[in-house]
Design a protein that fits this description.
With 317 residues, the protein is α/β, with parallel strands linked by helices. It is built from 9 helices and 11 strands.
């Protein structure tokens, strides 16, 4: 037995219009991912198994991959601070995800975002420890979530309200575990340009969809796009969502990794894209918590049937 999806299938043409605050057409979110990998991870072919590697030759999980670990560490030592400077100059906030290991071992990053009043998003214990490995071990998954959220509260000094799983990998039971701890927004799903409700045993959870396409990893590290090509892609995505948002609001999320976009030769397209977005009216630079809180209060006429969706329905596998 496996659970049904905890949200109804309602295609875009069958939805009511979504009217964001102050007539905004688009909710624009810039997500900086402050991720920490374990130096070794026994049992895996390679500890850096997520995402591309700067050198492709894999090493066993028990062996320290100094090249790929320190490539990522560049983002924590240098790249992130370049991103902070860009957003400070632009006068807009970012939404920062961080692993518990980042909070423990790289606290200066978390404090810098917190001091700016930016949104902080819980992002699993370690980037290399994905929840899908615990699909058949819900107690183990719950332990990771609980330990992560406990560290969040200790370091940030307030409870987490938003969750993004490392590698975007989660399980059927993950939303239930999250709402049990007071999470209101969930970022793992890639299936929409608008928020919607996920039914859980503890009440609704707002899906604030992420994008693996509008992401510096996909554009620049995996896709090897030039800065000019990357900027063209970003503008094209924004232009279409902005056009569609005139009738019903859309979300655009740009996922950022300090060791990718934070390199000197890639920072310019981010700066230029922010300027491009700011040149448009009717843009809501919001946090996911703000978006989720607003949606809970304003979702009634948006997606038919989502309030009646039952998380306890089951069907045969």
């Amino acid at each position: 037995m496996i659970p049904n999806d905890a949200y109804p299938y309602v295609p875009m043409p069958d939805r009511g219009p979504l009217h964001f605050p102050n007539g905004a057409r688009i909710a624009m979110i810039f997500t900086i991912n402050m991720e920490t990998w374990e130096k070794v991870r026994p049992g895996h072919k390679a500890p850096m198994f997520q995402g591309p590697t700067t050198l492709p030759a894999p090493v066993p999980g028990e062996v320290f991959d100094s090249t790929n670990y320190t490539w990522r560490e560049y983002g924590q030592r240098v790249g992130a601070w370049r991103l902070f400077d860009v957003f400070d100059a632009a006068g807009i906030p970012a939404s920062c995800t961080f692993n518990a290991l980042t909070a423990i071992n790289r606290r200066r990053l978390v404090d810098a975002a917190n001091e700016r009043g930016w949104e902080l998003v819980a992002h699993n214990w370690a980037q290399s420890d994905v929840l899908s490995d615990y699909a058949m071990n819900p107690a183990g998954e719950k332990d990771i979530i609980d330990r992560t959220l406990d560290i969040f509260q200790k370091v940030v000094r307030r409870p987490a309200k938003v969750w993004l799983s490392s590698a975007l990998r989660s399980n059927f039971q993950t939303p239930d575990f999250l709402t049990e701890r007071g999470i209101v927004a969930f970022c793992d799903y890639l299936n929409d340009d608008q928020p919607y409700l996920i039914a859980t045993k503890n009440g609704p959870l707002v899906a604030t969809p992420y994008s693996n396409e509008i992401n510096d990893f996909t554009l620049f590290a995996r896709g090897n796009a030039s800065p000019d090509v990357g900027l063209t892609v970003l503008k094209s995505c924004f232009d279409e969502l902005y056009r569609e948002g005139q009738g019903s609001g859309r979300i655009m999320n740009f996922g950022l990794h300090p060791h990718v976009i934070g390199l000197p030769h890639r920072i310019a397209p981010l700066r230029d894209f922010i300027d491009y977005v700011k040149s448009h009216s009717d843009v809501w630079f919001c946090s996911r918590e703000e978006l989720a809180t607003w949606y809970i209060a304003n979702h009634k006429d948006h997606i038919p049937g989502q309030d009646d969706w039952n998380p306890d329905r089951h069907s045969a596998e």
